[in-house]
Amino acid sequence: QIDIEDTGIGIPEKQLKGIFISFKQADGSTTRKYGGTGLCTTISKQLVELMGGEIWVESPSGISDDPETPGTRFSFTIKVFSNEKIKKIIQDEKITKYHQIKTLIINEKTGKDDHLLEILQNFGISSYVTNFQGKTIDLIKSNITNRTESYNVIIISDTPSFNGFEVARQLHQHKLSDK
User: Fold this and answer.
1) Which UniProt keywords apply (predicted)?
2) Is 11 helix (H, G, I), strand (E, B) or coil?
3) CA distance 54 to 44
């Protein structure tokens, strides 16, 4: 349950029943003095009901002793679901296998990959960054002979001065990738 209460002018008891009717205000003179269209309570009621809840109003709110500002309390309930009920079963052995993945990031400048490296590191994935397009193919060739040291994933950044498509073409041409 959620309660919203104030120490405002309050709502006369005879007006409480109609407070959730469109364009209805407790007193027409309040529109001139305090503003408002009389739609907010109607919209709030519709939203609460859409969420399977109930809304009600009490005036005076009980938090003020001043008869000039008795206040109002709006209360509502809605149906919500806890994430505690939706537990995912995660097998630790699947997570620990990430450390066996090696990635090679080929980019024009290594500084641009700090965020990507951090994400991969958080998963336990080892990564190597190179920004030398010409040496990249040789690096992959040397690692391909040793399956435990070969790269599982290669990420290529294509920029005006670094032709990622050419690197991908060479990888395919030299049969250094099966994807």
Assistant:
1) Phosphoprotein, Two-component regulatory system
2) coil
3) 10
Q: Longest C-alpha distance within the chain, in Å?
A: 87
Q: What angle do CA 49, 55, 59 make, to 5 degrees?
A: 160
Which domain, by its residues, includes 132?
A: 92-173
For residue 105, the cross-strand partners are 129, 155
Measure the CA–CA gap between 103 and 151, rounded to whole angstroms: 5
Of 81, 104, 123, the position where a domain reaches its end is: 81
Record the pTM.
0.41
Q: How far is residue 106's CA from residue 133's CA, in Å, rounded to a whole number?
A: 7
Q: What is the CATH number of the domain that holds 97?
A: 3.40.50.2300
How many domains would you assign to the chain? 2
| pLDDT of the chain, 179 residues: tens digit per residue | 999 988 888 888 888 888 888 765 555 555 545 555 567 888 899 999 999 999 999 998 888 888 888 899 999 999 887 666 555 555 555 556 677 778 877 776 656 677 778 878 877 888 877 776 667 777 777 776 666 566 766 766 666 666 777 777 777 787 776 65
CB 55 within 8 A of CB 75: yes
Q: Are 6 and 66 in contact (CB under 8 A)?
A: no
